[in-house]
TrEMBL record:
<keyword id="KW-1133">Transmembrane helix</keyword>
<dbReference type="Pfam" id="PF04773">
    <property type="entry name" value="FecR"/>
</dbReference>
<dbReference type="GO" id="GO:0016989">
    <property type="term" value="F:sigma factor antagonist activity"/>
</dbReference>
<keyword id="KW-0812">Transmembrane</keyword>
<feature type="transmembrane region" description="Helical">
    <location>
        <begin position="93"/>
        <end position="111"/>
    </location>
</feature>
<feature type="domain" description="Protein FecR C-terminal">
    <location>
        <begin position="324"/>
        <end position="391"/>
    </location>
</feature>
<dbReference type="InterPro" id="IPR006860">
    <property type="entry name" value="FecR"/>
</dbReference>
<dbReference type="InterPro" id="IPR012373">
    <property type="entry name" value="Ferrdict_sens_TM"/>
</dbReference>
<keyword id="KW-0472">Membrane</keyword>
<dbReference type="Pfam" id="PF16344">
    <property type="entry name" value="FecR_C"/>
</dbReference>
<dbReference type="InterPro" id="IPR032508">
    <property type="entry name" value="FecR_C"/>
</dbReference>
<protein>
    <submittedName>
        <fullName>DUF4974 domain-containing protein</fullName>
    </submittedName>
</protein>
<feature type="domain" description="FecR protein">
    <location>
        <begin position="175"/>
        <end position="270"/>
    </location>
</feature>
Amino acid sequence: MNTPEQAYFYANLIVRRLKEGLTGAEEQQLQEWIAGNKANARFLEDLENEAKLREEMEFFSSLDTVKAWNRINAETTGQGPGFVRKFLEKWQYAAAIVVLFLLTGLIFHNYRQAAPNNRITANAPKFKNDLPPGKSRATLILDDGSAVLLGTPGKSLAVLGGSSKKFQKPSSFITVSTPRGGEYKVLLPDGSKVWLNSSSSLTYPAVFAAKERMVKLTGEAYFEVARNKVVPFKVMAGDVAVKVLGTHFNIKAYREEHKISTTLLEGSVEVSKGNSTKMLSPGEELQILDDFDEIEGGDQLAEPPMILKGGNTESAVAWKNGQFLFNNDDIQTVMMQVARWYDAEIEYESKNAALHFTGKISRYTNVSKVLDLLELTGGVHFKIEGKRVIVTK
């Protein structure tokens, strides 16, 4: 059985072969895979048969992504019902490879662009209304209350100490705030880079102090901190402190999510709250449950628990790389991301807590494309009315 990494690799080759063709080296790799099993060649022939492909895609569109993939995994170890075993006997390894793409929604997204005349897109557009994706925009607020709108595509804000008389005092603070449907990149006075996600704000001094580089964050941001062994860099997210010398990490601190998550990609960080402190290594994520009134039946937590685990770094920084990446996320978690990025109001006519999603799609596409992908699971439907996205059965 192919590993998930191998499955993604060969599935990507198959989709690109159907869509745009492969390089000579890639075609050779695919041919070697085809030659390794006769069923692989038969399966690829079926994929190139438009009628057969429509039939298979319609079948997979009715599946719950997580449940279906769990059943396939169970069957490969002989633990599940007979249906999947018979299916895999027919399609063997090739089926497992492309099934993984189908179940994460990736092949649907790519194949729609490749073959706009197949039945999957025959009824498009499904939605009468639509919402555009977010874009680079923010507001800069100075100490005196004056504000400047920012939003030039591809540009970042750079305020360097001493570059303007107005910013020469260390006591001068700058706040960069992104709205719903906004993101922005900020270059700090020490050369550190910060990417702000939607509904986020970063406050920092125009000139860092000699002993500490401290910034304050609400919402979510990805940091690439310029290394300085003498002057540590500290991020305050509420009363949670993340202290580093020079590293790459992501902090997610949206109040409505009731937790603060720090994911480390490079270097090391020290995360503290109250008397509790944890050191993170690359690939780890620390979650601190927030002590809001809503938690624990209305009782505030004296010392919110810290949960250290192996982090999914790709998932944590997907937003910064222009993607939605869902990893067994429930409908509310998914729709919170949709609401922030598309500046949408979410309403629920039906809420299925058991429904989870796994998949990847670009953030720089209209909301209808994202909702269309989610609908392929067969467990949820949507309506778009103005700026409202309504979740239905």
